[in-house]
């Protein structure tokens, strides 16, 4: 199978007492730390309603909390309970909560343990980042928790295990990469714990051989396997790279966290496309060779113990416009043609969902949310997409492409209510004039220029929250506003959907019809993943603000471009600074 195994001698593993780092205890509540239970595999597979143990709450990445104390009847009384300042920089961190303790990765490789009821700091760990740190790629999704450790990805390509009661290092693993360009790799995805293995996606920006997924033993820190997401010339799938040399094959970054099905024992990830598009633009005339570029823009299903590829499905081949299909893979139960199926669903930047059988990768169906003009048709049996020929880059003229690379959707994760099988997804209406090729574009090697434009016939409302009935595959409702969204969404058992926008607002929507039931000004942009948890019987909503990155800046620029010159809409952006903000009922 297409994988590479690395021996213990090829990696750095340290069970360390004198690490190049600092763990500090602020006293806090020692009984709270001492009372935490070890997090077992069973707890990860079936988490308690009050805890938030995984990036999107559960292995299926549904981003749903069953808590219902805060609901449609009382959410108008929701108030800020506490906030603490955070570090400057770009991040989209997700807090984890276990037995009343919150764990959070701050910028610059700091990790905090907090009393989840008050925000009181219990301990702080500060990693001494090495010279190969990717400071420009500080936007990390979060951390993981397993047994009695917190698993932390760092800016200098290390995975750390910290004692969750003290913050002291337990083990450290340095991920080996090309010595020629170590600062072009980064660890943005939150680690995924699957069957005792830390499964970590690795981002690789314009480097030979591209990105990969790595499996690390959660107990020792030993590297077990790698799966390269760019097929080399002699690998399965190697014939899909237009007969170009292995050193010219780039992309396949795995920068969004994966999902896990314990019953099938499969993890699901989505490698991104390549920026090195020029060698793939025109297909070579060689029998058996294509320019599809596996495994970019694919869903890959791997076995966590070995890294073996169980199946793959390529959503869009030969992506020439950086329209990733790299986002969350959500596992759902849904009827298809009258039969219950376990499916993996995902949408790329085109806001077009594909549903695949979770066990086999068989194509089931697609849902187009109406924001794209690249896909002309989809084969109902295979899911193979026929692209609009007018959307192909050319040397003569620019073409209208919807969306642009900031996406109709982006990393702002959707949420699924498994009780109603309703999906909620934040979207932005974006288009661009793409091309002609041969220019000095800094994004794509074809040189195709990219200029953002308003969608045809736009009424100026470019922000959306859409609700999709997964049983009927139809739109249930759509909320639209001028400001585009800036955060993932959170659905709860109280019939609510929470989400933030670039105007610093944070809203609670009614899941039934999209009505806004509550809204507040956060004081800064929410560019993260909201969570819900419970301590001592009290439900909380928490999110990080003020650490917005390039995507939020691009959305603000897009909104300004579509404002018709009316800058008054942006006068209230106070940018008070990074913070963790927590809400509860009085």
Briefly say what this structure is.
By secondary structure, the protein is mainly β.
Task: Give a description of the structure.
With 586 residues, the protein is mainly β. The chain has one domain (8-584): Quinoprotein alcohol dehydrogenase-like superfamily (Methanol Dehydrogenase, Chain A, 8 Propeller), CATH 2.140.10. It is built from three helices and 41 strands. The strands form ten sheets. It has a five-stranded antiparallel beta sheet with strand order 1-12-11-10-9, with no helix packed on it. Strand 20 and strand 21 form a beta hairpin. Mean pLDDT is 93; it is low at 1-19.
Per the CATH scheme, the topology name is Methanol Dehydrogenase, Chain A
- How far apart the termini lie comes to 56 Å
Label the CATH architecture.
Answer: 8 Propeller
Give the integer mean of the pLDDT values. 93
Task: Tell the overall outline.
Answer: globular
Poorly predicted spans: 1-19
Number of domains: 1
> What's the arrangement of strands in the largest beta sheet?
1-12-11-10-9
Helical content stands at under 10%
Biggest pleated sheet: 5 strands, antiparallel
Measured by DSSP, the beta-strand proportion falls in 35-45%
Radius of gyration: 23 Å
Task: Please tally the helical runs, counting DSSP H or I stretches of 4 or more residues.
Answer: 3
DSSP, total strands: 41
Specify the CATH class: Mainly Beta
Annotated CATH homologous superfamily: Quinoprotein alcohol dehydrogenase-like superfamily
């Amino acid at each position: 199978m297409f994988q590479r195994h690395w021996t213990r001698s090829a990696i750095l593993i340290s069970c360390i007492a004198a690490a190049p780092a600092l763990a500090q205890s602020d006293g806090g509540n020692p009984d709270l730390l001492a009372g935490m239970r070890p997090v077992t595999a069973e707890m990860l597979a079936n988490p308690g309603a009050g805890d938030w143990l995984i990036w999107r709450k559960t292995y299926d990445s549904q981003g749903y909390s069953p808590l219902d104390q805060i609901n449609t009847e009382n959410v108008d009384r929701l108030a800020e309970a506490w906030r603490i300042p955070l570090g400057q920089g770009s991040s989209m961190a997700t807090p984890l909560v276990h037995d009343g303790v919150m764990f959070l990765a701050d910028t610059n490789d700091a990790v905090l343990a907090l009393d989840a009821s008050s925000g009181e700091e219990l301990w702080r760990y500060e990693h001494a980042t090495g010279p190969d740190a990717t400071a420009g790629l500080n936007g990390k999704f979060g951390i993981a928790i397993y047994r009695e450790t917190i698993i932390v990805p760092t800016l200098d390509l290390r995975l750390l295990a910290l004692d969750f009661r003290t913050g002291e290092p337990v083990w450290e693993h340095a991920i080996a990469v090309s010595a020629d360009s170590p600062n072009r790799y980064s660890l943005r995805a939150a680690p995924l714990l699957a069957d005792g293995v830390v499964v970590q996606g690795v981002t690789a920006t314009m480097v030979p051989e591209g990105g990969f997924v790595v499996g690390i033993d959660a107990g020792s820190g030993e590297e077990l396997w790698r799966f390269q997401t760019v097929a080399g010339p002699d690998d399965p799938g190697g014939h899909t790279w237009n007969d170009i040399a292995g050193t010219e094959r780039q992309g396949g970054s795995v920068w969004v966290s994966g999902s896990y099905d314990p019953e099938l024992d499969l993890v699901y990830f989505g490698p991104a496309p390549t920026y090195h598009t020029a060698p793939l633009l025109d297909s070579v005339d060689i029998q058996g060779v294509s320019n599809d570029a596996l495994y970019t823009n694919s869903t890959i299903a791997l076995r966590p113990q070995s890294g073996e590829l169980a199946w793959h499905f390529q959503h869009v081949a030969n992506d020439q416009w950086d329209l990733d299909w790299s986002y969350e893979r959500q596992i759902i139960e849904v009827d298809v043609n009258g039969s219950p199926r376990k499916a993996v669903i995902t949408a790329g930047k085109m806001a077009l969902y594909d549903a695949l059988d979770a066990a086999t990768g068989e194509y089931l169906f697609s849902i187009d949310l109406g924001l794209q003009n690249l896909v002309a048709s989809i084969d109902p049996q295979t899911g193979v997409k026929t692209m609009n020929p007018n959307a192909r880059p050319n040397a003569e003229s620019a073409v209208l492409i919807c969306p642009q690379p900031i996406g109709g959707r982006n990393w702002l994760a959707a949420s699924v209510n498994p009780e109603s099988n309703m999906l909620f997804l934040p979207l932005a209406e974006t288009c661009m004039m793409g091309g002609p090729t041969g220019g000095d574009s800094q994004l794509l090697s074809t040189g195709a220029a990219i200029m953002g434009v308003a969608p045809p016939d736009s009424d100026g409302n470019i922000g959306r929250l859409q609700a999709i009935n997964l049983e009927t595959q139809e739109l249930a409702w759509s909320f639209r506003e001028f400001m585009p969204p800036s955060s993932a969404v959170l659905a709860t058992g109280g019939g609510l959907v929470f989400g933030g926008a670039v105007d610093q607002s944070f809203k609670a929507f009614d899941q039934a019809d999209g009505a806004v039931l509550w809204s507040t000004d956060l004081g800064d942009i929410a560019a993260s993943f909201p969570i819900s948890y419970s301590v001592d019987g009290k439900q909380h909503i928490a999110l990080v603000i003020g650490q917005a990155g390039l995507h939020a800046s691009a959305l603000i620029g897009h909104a300004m471009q579509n404002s018709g010159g009316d800058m008054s809409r942006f006068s209230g952006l106070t940018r008070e600074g990074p913070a963790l903000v927590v809400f509860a009922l009085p």
